[in-house]
């Protein structure tokens, strides 16, 4: 372990967790170099941020050029060119033409806060670590541990994920959808009256909750409930947006119109930028000066975002996502049915290059198939650690035994195959020992 790592362990806040005890000194495309000279294949992308790979030359060049023009224009003082150019690039790819008015901020958590504030002003899953966002988060208790009470007026209802109904991965999607919508109806009857409910917020693909796509019928059911009661539907695309699932935004698979959509992560390939978009009618309900922030919509970040939008089109990123996704699912499903590993893998799921493998989870209820005969605690963490030893950075997620695949959207067929081979070897090694 290098002296710089020791220095970091001494002086960096303990509340930050790390997957690898090393310093990443550089990155290019789908690989990073550590301070001990190891070259690692990166299937984390900064948790779904560097969607176009590390240091994409066109994105880096755009940011560098903007640095020599103006680095910062506070949004309450004046417009700046990259902010407006980014809106020009995003308007054609919005999942519905009504989404035409934007506000850019810095992080996903802040964007969720902006969406909450807009919903409350307009009406009288993991969403972040700020207080409003923490109140909406149900993936893990660690994100809000020790800081209760959180924002009041937040009610949780079930997501159509088989674990939440003590079921199995093979249960029909229609049955999970029916139960989840029934539970939501009960919440609106028992806990919060529809006319007093400002919004429903949901990730179209659960991120920190385990990379679980929401069934199309469930999302359509939410839209119907919102329309019936005058409730706003907020779609959180922080992790699933900007091509991650094979479409520009995951909500496109359902055809559902968001009232408000939250964006971040892949929007600027690592430069801090997030945003919300809604229809002008709603956005104009907020008085001038009621939203803002010192660094909101930073010029350099917006310039990087413009370049990202251009690369997405010019390099046919969505086509690559869908081609690599088919290869990844084929390989993972083959591993799931392999005699060596089939009793240890309960689910392979996701969309595009937002993919999860769930291992059997001991210690749950006796009716939960997670508690099956494997009886190996922490299998996902063991697999991730072995992958790291073999040169692949990959992450776990959720309270269950889940490993998530978040490679760069422009990853090559060869690089993907290399990572899958390492993963297979790690799984086989983990279940043997």
From TrEMBL:
GO terms for molecular function: identical protein binding; pyridoxal phosphate binding; transaminase activity. This is 4-aminobutyrate--2-oxoglutarate transaminase. SUPFAM superfamilies: PLP-dependent transferases (SSF53383). Belongs to the class-III pyridoxal-phosphate-dependent aminotransferase family. It comes from the Eukaryota. Keywords: Aminotransferase, Pyridoxal phosphate, Transferase. Pfam families: Aminotran_3. The lineage of its organism: Eukaryota, Fungi, Dikarya, Basidiomycota, Agaricomycotina. Its cofactor is pyridoxal 5'-phosphate. CDD domains: OAT_like.
